[in-house]
Design a protein that fits this description.
It is a single chain. This protein is of the alpha+beta class and 503 residues long. Among the domains are: 94-236, no CATH class; 240-440, no CATH class. The protein contains 16 helices and 14 strands. The chain has helices spanning 2-17, 27-63, 67-76, 80-83, 86-89, 104-112, 198-208, 239-245, 270-274, 288-299, 305-312, 315-327, 425-431, 434-448, 451-475, 482-502; strands at residues 96-101, 120-126, 129-137, 166-169, 184-188, 216-223, 226-234, 253-255, 337-339, 356-357, 361-366, 371-376, 409-411, 416-419. A hairpin with a 2-residue loop joins β6 and β7. α2 packs across α16 (482-502), α12 packs across α14 and α15 packs antiparallel against α16 (482-502). The longest helix has 37 residues, at 27-63. It is globular, with a radius of gyration of 24 Å. The chain starts with a helix and ends with a helix. The relative contact order is 0.13.
């Protein structure tokens, strides 16, 4: 499939541009950062030590109970993972460690063919509590690039990288178990993100601007007693997510299906959406809301299209989505319409209309309000095309612009075909809200994306994981050195400043 092929090429190209050695120009900044973080951690450790000592003395003097007795009492009251809130594991202030344990046979099976994405049984241990789970590797085809023993562009082969993205199923074997309210954990490897910040920062910015988006934090992962490294723990988009993020979260959730074809026709067959359904699969679902949305937009024209869109979507919310998406250069997302390059001569500058589609998004339909909502997904390629363009993913058009009279055209270092997003009636209507878009954009750059706030955030998160990054580098040859990672962080900050300057 085209999208899978494009994912491969995107990841391949990032292998070339994603790693930068520490240069002499930022050597001083790197050293200052290391010294600053070391000082902060030393002071914090001293305070923590004093606090722990005082706390222990107080506990013993006032209650006469030992720590072991308190832990026993806690166990008698029930495991915390069954009653804990999801905010705990997605707490931005903490770096949690998760441990997976599998039999040698099951681990060997996963490692022999990661792209099969088949679950095997194992256990998850978290803060002293252990529960049975299903475990598998995860990702689109591009996730395996450089990490399988087979051909670079194939999904065959054994695991060759220390880290691969993983999914952990809590409700293993159809149980009703939850883990801090969630039924799945997703650990993303960040192998092709030299900063280890793309996912976490991208989703954070979406959420700060009022866009329903998954939470993402860093996490340490141990597998069969071996520390693997720092991952992005990113929230699963499912029924629990919709219930927490929408007034009525019981509606249909769809992954990567666009309501209108690139020929401007509404998708009105149930089968067009049934395959993409991620909730209510067993509830004999109906598709009248998304069908109504697609037909209403497709039949509207310039005279009433804005009015129709307001009836179906929260305009401020979707414009905020577009503002953040364009600022972070999420060029592998909903505004990049990839075209089927297997059916055309990509050297032809006058390409005929062919099948083109976006990816890396979800739609949610609120059954009470009968409204549609767009949810971002898969931000590993975000921020790439700011200063060092990826030859596969860059979008030619600025927001709302059209190239080649709405016919496919070739662009990027590899000359792959794409279609202007604004040729789609839905996106074209969003782009027509120009005053509203500019107001939200100005708010984003003035209040949310300021240099001080974002760099403080990055420095805080970097401080959380610095020791773990170094530990991974010392344990595994294919993990980046601390100095290389810090250097890439400084480059990342410079890229973000470039975005501000261009604004």
């Amino acid at each position: 499939m085209l999208l899978k092929h494009l994912s491969i090429t995107a990841f391949c190209s990032f292998l070339l541009v994603g790693s930068v050695a520490c240069s002499s120009s930022n050597e001083e900044q790197v050293q200052q950062f290391v010294e600053q973080e070391t000082k902060v951690r030393t002071e914090s450790a001293e305070k923590e030590s004093i606090s722990e000592e005082t706390s222990t003395q107080t506990t013993e003097n006032q209650t006469g109970s030992t720590i072991e007795e308190k832990e026993l009492d806690s166990e008698e009251s029930g495991p915390s993972y069954k009653s804990g809130d999801s905010d705990y594991i997605f707490d931005q202030e903490q770096l949690h460690t998760f441990e997976l344990t599998l039999s040698d046979q099951n681990l060997s099976y996963l490692d022999s063919a990661p792209a099969l994405e088949e679950y095997v049984s194992g256990t998850l241990t978290f803060e002293g509590e252990t529960l049975p789970v299903g475990i598998r590797y995860k990702g689109s085809v591009g996730a395996w690039v450089g990490c399988l023993s087979g051909d670079l562009f194939q999904t065959d082969g054994e695991k060759t990288c220390t880290k691969l993205s993983m999914k952990v199923k809590i409700n293993w074997e159809d149980s009703d178990d939850t883990f801090y309210e969630v039924k799945k954990l997703q650990f993303h490897s960040q192998n092709l993100d030299p900063t280890k910040m793309h996912e976490r920062l991208g989703y954070y910015l979406f959420r700060e601007m009022g866009v329903p988006a998954p939470r993402s934090v860093h996490a340490r992962l141990i597998i069969n007693g071996e520390y693997n490294g720092v991952y992005a723990l990113t929230e699963q988009i499912d029924g629990r997510f919709t219930r927490e993020n929408f007034n009525d979260g019981t509606g249909n959730l769809y992954k990567e299906v666009w309501p209108i074809t690139n020929n401007g026709e509404p998708r009105l067959r149930d089968g067009d959406f049934e395959w993409a359904l991620k909730t209510n699969e067993d509830e004999d679902p109906t598709f009248d809301i998304v069908h109504g949305f697609s037909e209403a937009i497709a039949k509207s024209d310039e005279s009433n299209r804005q009015e129709v869109m307001r009836e179906w979507m929260d305009i401020d919310q979707v414009l905020a989505y577009a503002v953040v998406d364009r600022a972070i250069a999420n060029d592998d997302g909903v505004f990049h319409w990839y075209c089927d390059n297997e059916r055309i001569d990509i050297g032809d500058s006058n390409l005929e209309q062919i099948e083109c589609n976006p990816h890396n998004f979800y739609w949610y339909e609120d059954p009470t309000a009968r409204t549609m909502h767009l949810i971002p997904w898969d931000l590993d390629n975000a921020f790439q095309n700011i200063s060092q363009p990826n030859p596969v993913t860059p979008i030619k058009d600025k927001w709302g612009e059209i190239t080649n009279d709405c016919k496919a055209f070739t662009f990027g270092g590899w000359g792959l075909p794409q279609l202007s997003a604004a040729c789609d009636p839905i996106i074209a209507t969003w782009a027509s809200f120009e005053p509203e878009y500019e107001e939200i954009r100005n708010n984003f750059f003035t209040n949310t994306f300021t240099k001080e706030d974002i760099e403080n955030l990055i420095n805080t998160w970097a401080g959380q994981i610095k020791d773990s990054v170094q530990e991974a580098a010392e344990s595994h040859k294919d993990q980046p050195s601390l100095r290389s990672w810090l250097s890439n962080l400084e480059r990342f900050k410079n890229d973000l400043q470039t975005v501000r300057n261009n604004n």
